[in-house]
Amino acid sequence: MRAIYLEGIATGQATFETAAPSWEQWDDGHLPHSRLVARQQQAVLGWGALSPVSRRSAYAGVAEVSIYVRAAQRRRGIGKRLLLALIDSSERNGIWTLQGATFAENIASLQLQEACGFRIVGRRERIGQHHGAWRDTVLTERRSLTVGC
């Protein structure tokens, strides 16, 4: 999983992070449920997980999605299968809103989210610097049709 995350970092399109966190940091930053791995035999092809957007109880049903697919396996539907499985798992665990914050240039990720029922709710302009350049993020969300209705 760490190697796949590092591949995502290397693209410059996946995250503001420039280094992979330790396992302890990663574990602390993600919900204990909805941690998924796509495998082919013993090879890990990709992974997905949810992070809480806040520790406040009012936001207990809101989570941010992370999906990473091994570079050699991209554009094969693995990301979509992971995202659909995360949606299912999130709802089974009481999540009513999934959100994303995606670099505006990451068209493939935005298209994937749209195909899985996410909608664009805004854009944060010049929200952070990445390798010395200001970057915008597109904010997306998917409301559950079964949880919190």
Gross geometry:
globular
Sheet with the most strands: spatial strand order? 1-2-3-4-6-5
Unreliable segments (pLDDT under 50, ≥5 consecutive)? none
Order of helices and strands: HHEEEHEHEE
Total E-strand runs: 6
**Rg, Å, rounded:** 15 Å
Estimated share of beta-strand residues: 35-45%
**Structural class based on helices, strands and sheet pairing:** alpha+beta
Main sheet?
6 strands, mixed
- The average pLDDT score comes to 95
Number of contiguous helices: 4
Fraction of residues in H or I helices: 25-40%
| Terminal CA distance | 34 Å
How does this structure look, described?
The mean pLDDT is 95. With 149 residues, the protein is of the alpha+beta class. Strands 1-2-3-4-6-5 form a 6-stranded mixed sheet. Strand 1 and strand 2 (43-52) form a beta hairpin. The longest helix is centred in the middle third of the chain and has 15 residues, at 78-92. It starts with a helix and ends in a 6-residue tail after the last strand. It is globular. The protein has 4 helices and 6 strands; from the N terminus they run ααβββαβαββ.
Task: Quickly describe the structure.
The chain is of the alpha+beta class.
Write the layout of secondary structure elements.
Blueprint (H helix, E strand, L loop, with lengths): L1 H10 L11 H7 L6 E5 L2 E10 L9 E8 L8 H15 L4 E7 L3 H9 L3 E12 L2 E11 L6
Parallel strand pairs: 3-4
Antiparallel strand pairs: 1-2, 2-3, 4-6, 5-6
